[in-house]
Design goal:
By secondary structure, the protein is of the alpha+beta class. It has helices spanning 29-40, 73-87, 89-93, 111-126, 136-142, 170-183, 227-232, 296-309, 355-372, 386-389, 396-399; strands at 22-25, 46-49, 65-66, 100-101, 104-108, 132-135, 158-162, 166-167, 187-189, 194-200, 203-209, 212-215, 219-221, 241-250, 260-263, 268-272, 278-281, 318-328, 335-339, 342-349.
């Protein structure tokens, strides 16, 4: 006989106070990680405001793939720190977040693509990240079910193999951060819609919500696809365009796929969860929208491309489909840090399709910025001022589709 089900208390309910030292808008992985890391540094009068429930936005609408095999030296170092935090997160937060190190394969279907993967591999290796280019014989050992024949329209020729890559339980990460932050005194307020931000003498002064106004000296914008709407409340126009990103999940199958598979040429990626489902995704939709609705064309094209890689899954049923909203920047890199001429307004936005990977390191470094008043070296290149200076980072080669 099993004992009675014990409910895990994630966070405590508290009345909304009229003043906080820090107000974080967005209770996804970035907002909650920032709150937790701030509290660890001794900042306790913190409110995390969420329009719906915790993890309702992009943190609950992603495929939770973890990796650090990016294209720029800045990106590689940044995401590598995040992977390392994820690897020990279950111990640090006291909750099993189900991190599973599977390996990550990015396929090349042309000679030119192989050259691109070689460059990425060399940049990764210089930074101390485990990545290398492998070819068909080794790929066949890692993924026996993959069609490596010449029959597909775009045969697989090689792959960038990134052993540290893997998957994680996205809701467990959100729950873990929420519970850990709550235990350190952070207040989490779901169903609290922000309607405006007041500015006085060049500094943030108030946050207006449907539950009343809050006085504060620091506001963190961690709202992913809705980052532009929050920034407009203080008169800032972000170089961000929001696009839907769709994914689907199949019925459970016996385990047969260990690594995460990615093909930029086919615009598709696929992984298998611990429960056996195939998680399949694609590139962002080619139009700007805040819609969370899924579409039939996405399902048709994604299914067709997966079958080019894994013909053995023909006839497998799709269980569900969803869409999230991604905040895309021109250079496929985030915007982090303070903004010119407005004291107390901090950005943690522009994550596009890869924000979940960066949640832990973003929270840690944004918290360091707020607590010390100094911008950490790791996030200096992601400043919003790079666009005016023409110092774009150019991460598209490793960010587009490459979950």
């Amino acid at each position: 006989m099993f004992g009675p089900f014990r409910r895990i208390k994630l966070y405590s309910a508290a009345p909304l106070k009229r003043r906080y030292d820090v107000v974080i808008i967005g209770a996804g992985v970035h907002g909650l990680a920032t709150a937790y890391e701030l509290a660890r540094r001794g900042v306790r009068n913190i409110a995390v405001l969420e329009r719906y429930y915790i993890g309702a936005g992009s943190s609950g609408r992603n495929t939770a793939i973890i990796r650090s095999n990016y294209r720029t030296p800045v990106g590689v170092a940044f995401y590598d720190e995040s992977v390392k935090i994820y690897e020990r997160m279950s111990t640090d937060l006291g909750l099993n977040v189900m991190f599973s190190r599977r390996g990550h394969l990015t396929f090349a279907h042309t000679d030119q693509a192989i050259t691109g993967l070689r460059v990425r591999a060399e940049i990764n290796q210089i930074a101390g990240v485990d990545s290398r280019v492998i070819f068909r014989d080794e790929i066949a050992k890692l993924v026996p079910s993959l069609d490596l024949s010449k029959k597909p329209r775009y045969p697989v020729l090689a792959a960038l193999y990134h052993p540290p890559g893997g998957i994680i339980r996205h809701d467990a990460v959100v729950w873990g951060y929420a519970r850990a932050a709550d235990r350190l005194g952070v207040e989490i307020h779901p169903n609290t819609n922000v309607t405006g931000i007041g500015v006085s003498n060049g500094a943030v002064a108030t946050v207006r919500t449907e539950r009343g106004d809050i006085q504060t000296g620091t506001v963190v914008n961690a709202t992913a696809g809705w980052a532009s709407t929050i920034a407009e409340m203080v008169g800032i126009r972000l170089p961000i365009v929001s696009h839907p990103l769709q994914a689907l999940v199949t019925e459970p199958l016996k385990p047969f796929l260990n690594p995460v598979l990615v093909s930029a040429t086919l615009n598709v990626y696929v992984s298998q969860t611990d429960r056996g489902e195939l998680v399949i995704g694609s590139e962002i939709d080619p139009y700007s929208s805040y819609s969370n609705r899924s579409t039939l064309p996405f399902m048709e094209s994604s299914a067709a491309h997966v079958l080019e890689l894994l013909p053995c899954v023909a006839g497998v049923k799709v269980l569900r489909q969803w869409a999230g909203v991604c905040d895309m920047t021109p250079d496929y890199s985030p915007i982090m840090g303070t903004v010119p001429n407005l004291k107390g307004f901090v950005l943690d936005v522009g994550w596009g399709t890869y924000g979940f990977k960066a949640g832990p390191v973003s929270g840690r470094r944004i918290a360091e910025l707020i607590a010390t008043g100094r911008t950490p070296d790791l996030i200096k290149p992601f400043s919003i001022e790079r666009f005016a200076k023409g110092e774009l980072l150019g991460e598209k080669a490793a960010a587009a589709v490459s979950h």
